[in-house]
Structure to design on (263 residues):
């Protein structure tokens, strides 16, 4: 799924399609892939809330700010 | 229950020190990303025009390589949990190979930019592009050194199912490098 999302993002870059909906999709894939890395690769899914809050908080903040200044 | 023990079921993987380091690194990269987004909002045309000179194909391949490398590290730790040292070492080796291909492609990309006379002072986009990607590139190189050290330790039999703290610490750092790239690729190569 992560590789498929990367492929979709690549197609957006190659075809040059733009617009709020497309950029929202790109940001969503960024967020989902980041969440997977945090939960499944870093193994934080079952850790204390404070650790998950820091990692997911960082990801959410970055994606949100990028979204605010992009869309 | 110690400070670094998770409240629910599983302990925080690796040493607390590596996580403090990871949080500090993410803070720096996060500020870079926000800076990029703000600068882009003030120079949309310049950023879009300069972005067209980037090779998104290399960026996408590098994303696949880093995700694959991270996945291999996960499998390597999984093998250690079953005390299967040979399988663990093999997965770690795959991870190192993926990371080395990333460095090769990134070096090719950066060399291409420098060869055409592009520098940090060419424009704001390239200032961010070169500093962000080079900063990350240095992290990948450090990550490869860590992965090689982990591979050597696995082969030396230094990790076991109930003694894999060092392996988890190195893995956490490598996943952080992957996480940063997962944000950086769409931000720099895709969003326009």
């Amino acid at each position: 799924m992560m590789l498929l999302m990367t492929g979709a993002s690549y197609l957006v870059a190659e075809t040059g399609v733009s617009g709020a909906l497309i950029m929202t999709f790109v940001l969503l894939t960024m967020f989902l892939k980041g969440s997977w890395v945090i939960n499944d690769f870093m193994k934080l899914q079952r850790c204390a809330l404070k650790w998950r809050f820091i990692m997911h908080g960082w990801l959410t903040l970055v994606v949100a700010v990028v979204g605010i200044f992009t869309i | 229950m110690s400070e670094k023990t998770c409240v629910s079921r599983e302990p925080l993987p690796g040493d607390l020190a590596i996580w403090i380091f990871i949080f500090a690194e993410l803070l720096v990269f996060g500020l870079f990303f926000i800076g990029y987004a703000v600068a882009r909002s003030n120079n949309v045309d310049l950023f879009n025009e300069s972005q067209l000179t980037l090779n998104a194909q290399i960026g996408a391949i590098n994303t696949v390589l880093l995700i694959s490398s991270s996945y291999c590290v996960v499998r390597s730790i999984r093998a250690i949990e079953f005390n299967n040292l040979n399988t663990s070492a093999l997965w770690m080796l795959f991870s190192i190979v993926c990371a080395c291909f990333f460095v090769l492609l990134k070096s090719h990309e950066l060399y291409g930019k420098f060869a055409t006379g592009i520098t940090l002072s060419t424009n704001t986009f390239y200032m961010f592009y070169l500093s962000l990607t080079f900063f990350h590139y240095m992290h990948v190189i450090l990550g490869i050194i860590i992965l090689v050290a982990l591979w050597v330790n696995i082969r030396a039999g230094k990790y076991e199912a109930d003694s894999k703290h060092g392996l988890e610490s190195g893995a956490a750092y490598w996943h952080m490098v992957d996480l940063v790239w997962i944000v950086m690729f769409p931000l720099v190569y895709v969003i326009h």
